[in-house]
Specification:
The protein is mostly helical. It has 10 helices and no strands. Helices cover 73% and strands 0% of the residues. Helix 6 runs parallel beside helix 9.
């Protein structure tokens, strides 16, 4: 689940959790997500994240040891949400739509992840583990005419295409298209090939 809007936005919109304000940690996660979406990992300063949350840097450090720790928790939330969504998908096309929609919700994670990937082997390993988990969930819908090995290879290819598409979208480098249309195009490519 995507963290709630930062307190400053919630206060302007009059949004609460029904019992008052949202927990500080949740607000900080949401602020991190928004700040990473705007500035990427390197451009997001701790002071920017705290300001987005309407809090002090001390409040942020009271919940997270560092900007990296905040990002790692956001990445874990993204991974949990995307695997949950793929597991719930009743068809390949539904899974593709879910991937796009979850990635749009977590666009800050995608943008920050791309920025740190070349220099953080631990993060690259976490992304590979997530890719393999997702490939297993997608491959299930590709079995039939494909062998298990081929279904997994096609699933990895789809994940790589989706990952690049949603990353480009998160960085505003491509026009945002309807998720159902993008999924239908990818689904058609898998079933019929690029030149069908």
């Amino acid at each position: 689940m995507v963290p709630e809007k930062p307190r400053s936005e919630r206060a302007r919109a009059g949004v609460t959790d029904g019992a008052g304000t949202l927990p500080t940690r949740q607000v900080l996660l949401s602020a991190g997500l928004a700040t990473f979406a705007r500035a990427g990992y390197d451009g997001a300063r701790v002071t920017d994240i705290a300001a987005e949350a309407g809090m002090t840097t001390g409040a942020l450090y009271g919940h997270f040891d560092s900007k990296a720790a905040l990002f790692e928790e956001l990445f874990q939330l993204y991974g949990n949400e995307i695997t949950r969504a793929l597991d719930a998908g009743t068809s390949l096309e539904a899974q593709l739509v879910q991937w796009i929609e979850v990635s749009r919700e977590y666009r800050g994670v995608l943008r920050a992840s791309a920025g740190i990937l070349p220099r953080r082997p631990d993060h690259a390993a976490a992304r590979r583990r997530l890719r393999e988990a997702c490939a297993g969930l997608i491959a299930w819908h590709l079995r039939g005419p494909l062998t298990q090995r081929d279904a997994r290879l096609v699933a990895r290819m789809l994940i790589d295409v989706l990952d690049q598409y949603t990353l480009m979208e998160s960085m505003d480098r491509t026009e945002r298209r309807d998720a159902v249309d993008v999924a239908a195009a990818l689904h058609g490519m898998v079933l019929e090939g690029v030149y069908a």
